[in-house]
Structure formats: C-alpha cells, structure tokens
Amino acid sequence: MTECKPEQLSFGSLGRREIVASFDGGMISSDGGALLLSEVDTRIGLIDRLAECFIDGRAQQFVEHPLRHLIAQRVLGLALGYEDLNDHDALRRDPVLAAVSRQADVLGERRRADDVGCALAGKSTLNRLEGSAKRSARGRYKKIVPLEAAMDELLLSLFIESFPSAPASLTLDIDATDDPLHGHQEGRFFHGYYDNYCYLPLYIFCGEQLLCARLRTANQDGAAGARDELMRIVRRLRATWPTTQIILRGDSGFCRDELLSWCEAEGVDYIVGLAKNARLKRAIGGEARQAAEAFEATQRPARVFSVFRYRTRKSWSSERWVVGKAEHLAKGENPRFIVTTLLDPTCATPVAEQGCVLYEQVYCARGEMENRIKEQQLNLFADRTSCTAMPANQLRLYFSSFAYVLLQALRRLGLTGTSLEKAQCGTLREKLLKVGARVRVSVRKLWVSLPTAYPYAEVFTHAWRQLQMLPLRI
Fold it and tell me: Which domain does 232 fall in, by range?
C-alpha cells in the first residue's frame, strides 16, 4: 500500500524554525491515566460484575467483542470524558483503552480487513448494546438484555463492601433533579418548576457514594417512588448491618406523610425540609421578632431557633417535631422549617439548642449531595439521555452511575492524603486521566511511556502505590 504523507499543520515559527505538527505519532494515547482506573477496577471488581448484570444471547462463535469488553469500553469511555458513541469510531484504535478493557489484541488483528487496527468496538456495536434495553427491541440485532434489578443490587454491594466494619450511622440523602430533553423521547413531559421538557431522575447518595439512580417521567410528584427505593435499600443495609442507625435526609419535596410514616414504622430516623405556611410562621412569631430586633441592633444576619410539635390539618397522620428557624437578613425575614425524629426532649441539652445543631450541622450538610448530582450530570453525562426509548436512557444512566462509582473509588482508595482527595470527577479526569502516553508492544510486555514533564507524576505514583496495597478481587 502507498504510504501517504500526513497533512502538516503550521503554527508559525520559533526563531528560524517553523513549528509544524501532524498526526503521525503512531500509537500514542491521550488517556494514559486510564491505567489507574484499571487498577481500581481490579480491586473492586466493578466491570466483571456489571457484565454479569446482562444476558448475552448472541451466538458466541461469531462474536469478536465479548460483553465484558463492551461494558468496559462504555463505562471507561464515560469516565475518560467521551459521552458520545460516535467518539468510539476513533477510540476503537486507542491502545490504552483496549488494554484497560482487557482486550489482549491491542493492535486490532481482526477478521475483516476493514477492521484491522481497531481493537475495540465501534459506535454501531455499542449502539446495539444500549438499544437492547428497549422492551420491544428483541430481534436479530438486539440480543443483549440488561437486568435492572441486578444493577441496582450491584450499586448496593459496592457500597457495603467499601466499609471494613459496620458503621454506627448512615445518612441517606435523597433528591430529584431535572434532565432536560431536546427531542421527542419516550416519557417526555413539561415540568412547570424547571420550565422545560425533561425527565425527573431520583438520586440517593450516602456521603459521596451513589446508591440509586432512577430515571422517571416528569409528570409526577418529586417524591414518587421514593418509598419503594428506600424500602429496597434499607432492607439490604439492615440485612448486613442490623444495628446501624439509618437517617433519611431530604428537602421539602420529600416531606410526604406516606414516606415519614414508613420511616417511623421501620425505625428509620429522618430530617426533612418542611415548606413554610401561615400557621408555621405564626408558631415562630416571637422568635421572628427577636431576630428582627437583633438585626436592627447589629445590622448583621440574626437567627433564633424554636422547636415545637406540629401536625397539618389534613395531610399528616400524626403530630411530629418541627424545628423552626427565624432568620432576619438585609432583604428581610427568611423563615425555614424542618421536621425530624432526631430531637430528644429527655436530653439535658435544651431542645432549642438541639434544633440549632440539627438545622445548621445536620440538615444544611445535605447541600453536599447537590455537588454529587452535579458531578454525575456535568462530568459523567448522566443527562445524555437522547435515546428514543426510556429503558435505553435508563441504561445510559446506569453506565454513567458506574463510571461515577469507579472515579469515586479512585478518590477514596488511591488519593487519600493528596491534593486531589477532595477533587471532583472532572478535575480528576483533567489532572490524572488525560495523560499523553506512547504505547509499544513487544513479545512479553506492553510498554506505556508517560511524559517526563507530567506535573502530577507524584500524585499519580502515590495513587498507584495505595492501590497496590489493596487485595485483588478474584
């Protein structure tokens, strides 16, 4: 074959020398840091177990891309920042992605001449993987069936395995967010609060770890289905840690009698926002005047807390403890309320002081969960739900969720004690994963040469050493 000279790109000059670039470097990958993700995976066993959550009905004698390779390619691709299946028509030639996907033939010595040099699957094969989630898509080209219940169980198993012993307490943060839609996807509805056509996914986190990501239509209450998801999660956690205290934390969108009554019946504590109304404002009228007087005297924001028993006129089945925050700011009064089971009236600490601690230190900490949702939506493309069918979009949400779990495990297991131990997923990708690497293949080794001038080489090496100390998952 005639070797064509690659196009040269001129970038001016440096002294007497012209600066010229061309895409002729050979086997060079921009994702050398994916090797760290592979090390994490060998410790937690995510990809192998995720592949077990699918039924592969293909005739294996004709299969060039095993299911495990497809799953690894998709999840690792998301973690590396490739949200679109079209990206994989070029990525299928990436030797590092092939290596971390456990494709032994990184050079791509394929059956078909057109595929030679492409070790991994292209967009069409991956599209058939995602499209197989359609309930009506079974047929000649849709033979891989995802098992949603198995993937839900895997998320919980990975979470439980992250603890060396039973924790004394777990706080489950629950929230809903909008997933804007720009086509005519199945389950598309207009949501008045978000002012767009969207899905309304439900997330449940415990600290930084993801326990549930459920895609829902937007034509329902934000708390719809929350009790069923919590029943499933709490049952699993209680079976493993029967004495662990479980606390549910959420905003006022989850202050529903059905959910609160279930928590009380199951011994699950809760601290949940409560939407303000005229009766609640009257209940903290004295505290509101105190806060206003304090603001007038100091011209600084003032807060006064009150704790009282409260029951709605119709919607609640029982009376509950409510913490009221009477706050006065430069723009005026700003009352807020929470309902909780965490108050102890028999404690020596006055209930008003307990209420202050519960609001400021416990309830307000739920804002951290919103950062986790942003990580998944913005950094791991959980909002890339452009498939026509809703089940296929749910599968995309699962892939995004497991990509998040993989990066969070890297942060938790490998980066403790470094400058990146609190870094968001996008920062981890930019500083640790996006590393240029030259790949050379010999008879016995696959050499990956990383840049000598790489500024985060020390952090990269630290993460590798930390992961090496952990046992492999067989």
Answer: 149-375
